Amino acid sequence: MVPAPSLVVERVLGQKAMNLVKSISLLNERLKVLVLNGKVVIPLRREPAESELEAFKLGLGRFQVAEHTFKIRKVGPRNLVEALNGKLPQNLIKIIPRSYNMIGDIAILDIPKELRTHAKTISEAFKILNPRVKAVLVKVGPVKDTFRVRQYVVLNGGPSTVTHHAEHGLIFRLDPLKVFFNPRLIHERQRIASMVGSNETIIDMFAGVGAFPIIIARSKDVRKVYGIDINPEAISFMLQNIVLNKLRGRIVAVLADATSELPLSGLADRVIMNLPERSLEFLGEACRFL
């Protein structure tokens, strides 16, 4: 317990008093606020000056300033750098990743090679900061092969990495270890959907778990959306997502190579190719659907 000057107000004025004390930088954040006998006791950094007492009179009317003893507030680290101070050499603290991706309740970290030997320590600190995270994955390779699955290592959590990702009021069930999904395309998906006209037929050549088809079918009065993908896991999740988002009958999931002979030639008003690094390569096949 630590003695400190305090501002004492009736409970109904507690939030107003807290806001006022914070606004004049007088709150002692190291100490816990007390509630005693229907009054709120707010710890102060020092005795208030005359001008501050005047501010209390104007803003609160009734108040007291008195000495009280307070419990010390346990303040945890606010970010990954603070959480790893003392656990990693200082030269490595400087290159700790400041950003990360979230897919549902799974965190995706991009850890530099210099930090890979400390990856487990970093993931444990991350989970302390983010206790609701189910699993922490680290990128160890690019998106590759026919199924476009990124290489990850599970550092923390599991064994299941299936998650439910919310976007634009929709739910996408997926496993990032088995399918491609980029949460950073949230605005791009909405932008493409906004371009679609009513009664159009849409073909998504590389649909994955159905993000583009589902957002389009939910937001636009389309005739039909065809989602093609060569990855059986992606098609399985797409079918689940169609049901989860109540869009049965509006989206057709097609397990196939989009470049193969499919009975969809000339059906589409619009074709989506979410494969920017190779889109020119498949331009001929895309035109075949129009």
Describe what you observe in this structure.
The protein is of the alpha/beta class. The chain folds into three domains: 69 residues, Alpha-Beta Plaits, CATH 3.30.70; 82 residues, Met-10+ protein-like domains (GMP Synthetase, Chain A, domain 3, 2-Layer Sandwich), CATH 3.30.300; 107 residues, Rossmann fold. It contains nine helices and 14 strands.
Provide keyphrases for this structure.
14 strands, four-stranded antiparallel beta sheet, Rossmann fold, 3 domains, alpha/beta, GMP Synthetase, Chain A, domain 3, 290 residues, 9 helices, four-stranded mixed beta sheet, Alpha-Beta Plaits
Instruction: Write down the Rg.
Output: 27 Å
Quaternary structure classification: single chain
| Fraction of residues in H or I helices | 25-40%
How many β-strands, per DSSP? 14
Series of secondary-structure elements, N-terminal to C-terminal: EHEEHEHHEEHEEEEHEHEHEEH
Structural class: alpha/beta
Which architecture of the largest domain would the CATH scheme give at its second level? 3-Layer(aba) Sandwich
Counted up, domains total: 3
| Average pLDDT taken over every residue | 93
Summarize the topology.
Blueprint: E1 2-10, H1 14-23, E2 34-36, E3 39-43, H2 50-60, E4 64-70, H3 80-84, H4 90-93, E5 101-103, E6 106-109, H5 119-129, E7 135-144, E8 149-157, E9 163-167, E10 170-174, H6 186-195, E11 201-204, H7 211-219, E12 224-229, H8 232-244, E13 251-255, E14 270-272, H9 283-288
Parallel strand pairs: 6-7, 11-12, 11-14, 12-13
Antiparallel strand pairs: 1-3, 1-4, 2-3, 5-6, 7-8, 9-10
Helix pairs in contact: 6-7
